[in-house]
Design a protein that fits this description.
The complex is a heterodimer. Helix content of chain A is about 65%, strand content about 0%. Chain A is mainly α. In chain A, helix 7 (about 150-170) crosses helix 8. Chain A is elongated. Chain B is flat, with a radius of gyration of 23 Å. In chain B, helix 2 (about 20-35) runs antiparallel to helix 5 (about 105-130), helix 3 packs antiparallel against helix 10 (about 235-260) and helix 8 packs across helix 9 (about 185-220). Chain B starts with a helix and ends in a 12-residue tail after the last helix. By secondary structure, chain B is mainly alpha-helical. Chain B is about 65% helix and about 5% strand. Classes of the chains: A mainly alpha, B mainly alpha.
Chain lengths: ~230, ~270
């Protein structure tokens, strides 16, 4: 507690609180900050690597949730929970906003999970490739210009579609009843949108509000639009 | 607590620690790739035993530490074991029944093979992780596998963050308790709690990423035109190690083929 010498009254606590960020920075002719230029800065490379590590840690925890739910809900559990395994890519893409962020995050989390002990092992590399590609597509379609909620949700949905095709082959879904497969598909897309797109964005937004993202692309772009 | 024990107990004065990290990694990954297409119990247990002997012998790891390091893999494996035994994809011949549940022979065998595979993966990851100094690993990635230094050093910084995540969680828990954050019960409470832990964890990680990047740039690290204080080279013992690992693995395969016990993934994507 630092004593407030200027106020001196009992009201001084309240006056200390209204340091609101000034969002209307005047436009000057400055060169683009490094985060908005094409190449990768050191900061972005390290940030991406650390996001990969933390999300691998979270994903491994989520595997436990899945194992528990699987015993109650059976194979549908995977479709319900699937979306969270996409959230890291969407989280990183929203913060860094450069090509291949979503894809690299997916691959990084896979590598870390293999090293840290996901029993699926090397087959996970294929999963990472499929899901990484799926989440990258919507961002590529906007030419890495738009990171609004609809785009992030589309990324989650697209990852769901990609991963559904992959699991279709891996777990022979054509042997199941058509209605069931349709249900699984719808649940998975919803999960991708909610647990992947929305949750990834909500987490990223919460982290952004803590102020640790200053200097990343999200910081400049949200400042100029909001 | 489980990961901390793995990462903090690397034995750096063992013969295994002197092997070139890139060579060691490639050997472990090749064995793991092979293991992921093997389904019979005998080959899997032989490869697990081989890995365990390497860790205990050449790695000089104490058995207690190895068991502790393998604990997460064991838990994973047990999960897969009962899941497959209780919920097989296709019901086969019933082996025995425990109350209302029937344990099928196929389910149990698949479960056992998943369990052993998790263990084999565990042993071969521990073998690498527990005998490798991260700095040497990264240098060797740059020198032997020509990974760009910028990416390699970022990966190093992040890799070192993994063991401290557990400590970070403890700190967040302590901070919550200090501020008297109530812990509500039920699913809703659990979700709320997960969110309260995840955001500070991610924020802390990003803050750390910023600091690390600033420190790297402050020291003039751009990744280009580097000279090296230490250079990882390839020596005769690295070749001997690779030959040894591949030789024993090949011998296990050959023996399995000969005895007719080897069961490989048949290349089917569906069955």
């Amino acid at each position: 507690m630092t004593p407030d010498y200027t106020g001196g009254s009992s009201m001084s606590n309240e006056t200390g609180n209204d340091t609101v960020n000034k969002t209307d920075t005047p436009q000057r002719n400055r060169p683009l900050p490094p985060a908005l230029r094409p190449g990768w800065t050191m900061r972005e490379t390290v940030t991406l690597a650390i996001i990969g590590v933390v999300f691998a840690f979270l994903y491994l925890g989520w595997v436990q949730v899945w194992l528990v739910l699987q015993s109650v809900a059976g194979p549908l559990a995977m479709d319900v929970l699937m979306g969270f395994w996409f959230s890291g890519s969407i989280f990183a893409a929203w913060l860094i906003r450069k090509p291949f962020v979503a894809f690299s995050t997916a691959m990084l989390t896979v590598f870390v999970q293999i090293l840290a002990g996901n029993p699926s092992g090397a087959i996970l590399l294929l999963t990472g490739l499929v899901q990484g590609a799926g989440s990258e597509v919507p961002f590529a379609l906007t030419r890495y210009k738009r990171y609004s909620y609809p785009v992030l949700m589309a990324s989650g949905a697209c990852t769901s579609v990609f991963s559904f095709v992959y699991t279709w082959f891996r777990f022979s879904y054509w042997e199941l009843a058509g209605g069931l497969v349709l249900t699984m598909f719808i649940i998975r897309v919803v999960s991708g949108v909610v647990l992947g797109g929305v949750l990834g964005r909500v987490l990223a937004g919460a982290v952004h509000r803590t102020g640790v993202t200053s200097g990343l692309a999200v910081d400049y772009q949200t400042r100029s639009t909001e | 607590m489980m990961r901390r024990s793995v990462f903090e107990n690397y034995e750096l004065y063992s013969p295994l620690a002197t092997i070139n990290p890139a060579v060691k990694l490639i050997c472990s990954v090749v064995v793991m790739l092979f293991v992921s297409v093997v389904f019979d119990l005998q080959t899997l247990s032989l490869l697990t035993a081989f890995g365990a002997l390497m860790v205990l012998g050449l790695g000089r790891m104490r058995p207690v530490v190895l068991v502790r390091a393998l604990l997460p893999f064991l838990l994973f494996g047990i999960g897969f074991l009962w899941m497959n035994a209780l919920l097989p994809r296709s019901a086969g011949t019933t082996l025995f029944t425990v109350g209302p549940v029937a344990i099928s022979a196929e389910g149990l065998r698949n479960g056992m093979s998943f369990f052993l595979r998790a263990l084999t993966f565990g042993v071969w990851s521990v073998l690498f992780v527990a005998s490798t100094e991260p700095t040497r690993f990264v240098l060797s990635l740059v020198h032997q596998l020509s990974v760009p230094p910028k990416i390699a050093y970022s990966a190093l910084a992040a890799y070192r963050y993994l063991p401290s995540l557990q400590i970070e969680l403890e700190q967040i828990r302590g901070a919550h308790r200090l501020r008297g954050v109530g812990e509500a019960g039920g699913v809703r409470g659990k979700l709320q709690r997960a969110y309260r832990f995840t955001v500070p964890l991610l924020a802390g990680a990003l803050r750390r990423a910023g600091r690390v990047a600033a420190a790297m740039e402050a020291r003039g690290f751009t990744g280009a035109n580097r000279t090296w204080y230490r250079k990882e080279g390839l020596r005769l013992r690295d070749a001997a190690y690779a030959l040894g690992v591949f030789g024993v693995t090949a011998a296990v395969i050959w023996w399995g083929l000969h005895a007719g016990t080897l069961m490989l993934w048949s290349g089917r994507l569906w069955d």
